[in-house]
Amino acid sequence: MLKAYIDVTLKKSILDPQGTAVKEGLSKLGFEVETVRIGKHIEVTLNDMNRENAEKLIDEMCLKLLINPEIEVYSYRIEEE
Amino acid sequence: MLKAYIDVTLKKSILDPQGTAVKEGLSKLGFEVETVRIGKHIEVTLNDMNRENAEKLIDEMCLKLLINPEIEVYSYRIEEE
Questions:
Q1: In this predicted model, what pLDDT tens digit does every residue of A57-77 receive, in sequence order?
Q2: Bridge partners of residue B10, in order along the sequence
Q3: Helices in B29-76 by DSSP H: which ranges?
Q4: Theoretical Cys-Cys bridge with B49: which of B6, B53, B75, B76, CB 3.0 to 4.6 Å?
């Protein structure tokens, strides 16, 4: 069975207030970092299919439901479970 | 400069209502999948340091702020920017 690990992140041009808040939180705890950006991590276990079909399916699912293509981009890897 | 890509996911024993909702949403669009689990994806750009220190720092940051160790687990990779 194949499992897709999808990362959804805001485009670089889009402000990320949640990331800024986390950066400030880290700073208050003494952790100084350059930048923090927050996105979504989605794990999808697929019904039985080959890798080529899985890639097509994941692309379709991302563009139709999982991401907002105006402000987000996605990347993924597919692994055998 | 090093950048950490951190994935935070709910432990397997913890219910994920958001994932269930997304699975149902996918199903309504005609995408049948086995399971969907939703987590956070966090990208942290670090000040100048070596990889060993970076790993220590990321572990500390995760346990002190970024995750809730009662219900979440994390994994990460560190890459040269």
A1: 999 999 999 999 999 999 999
A2: B72
A3: 51-61
A4: B53
For this complex, say whether ipTM is above 0.85: yes
Q: List all residues 6 or more positions away from B33 whose beta carbon is below 8 Å from its beta carbon.
A: A44, A45, A46, A47, A61, B23, B26, B27
CB pairs below 8 Å between A and B: how many? Answer: 98
Cα distance between the two ends of chain B: 5
Q: Rounded to an integer, what is the distance from CA B15 to the centroid of its chain?
A: 16
Nearest CA in chain A to B18: A42
> What domains does chain A contain, in order, with CATH numbers?
2-80 (3.30.1280.10)
Tell me the chain A residues in contact with residue B29 when contact means C-beta distances shorter than 8 Å.
61, 64-65
Decide if B29 and A57 are in contact by the 8 Å CB cutoff.
no
The CA–CA distances, whole Å, from B45 to A9, A33, B70 equal 14, 6, 26
Strand partners, B75: B7
CA distance to partner chain A, nearest, from residue B69 (Å): 17
- Comparing CA positions, the residue from B44, B5, B71, B70 lying closest to residue A6 is B5
Q: At A68, which amino acid appears?
A: N
Residue A69 is encoded by which pair of tokens? Answer: 């293509």
